[in-house]
Amino acid sequence: MQLSLPQALACALAQFLKRAGYSDYRALAASEQEAYAMLHAGECLRAALAEQGIAPR
Question: Do the domain assignments include residue 57?
């Protein structure tokens, strides 16, 4: 799958993913299992952004 985002939005997403943790996902998930799946998806996105050079410190 490929996603195209303007640089500013990609940076904003990377910042969010850097700051989001399990408790954030759990608060929005229907179950613990769903929270872990959401966390994993977020980490996959974070890694893909980092591969493209978008990795906030």
Answer: no
Q: Report if residue 56 sits inside a domain.
A: no
DSSP 56: -
Among residues 2, 5, 4, 38, the alpha carbon closest in space to that of 21 is found at 38
Q: How many domains is the chain built from?
A: 1
Taking 90 as the threshold, does the pLDDT of residue 16 lie above it?
yes
The answer on pLDDT for 1 being more than 90 is no
Three-state DSSP class for 33? helix
Instruction: Please work out, in degrees rounded to the nearest 5, the angle formed at the alpha carbon of residue 27 by the alpha carbons of 24 and 39.
Output: 50
2 part of a folded domain: no
Q: Residue 46: which domain range?
A: 7-51
Share of the chain above pLDDT 70, in %: 100
pTM over 0.90: no
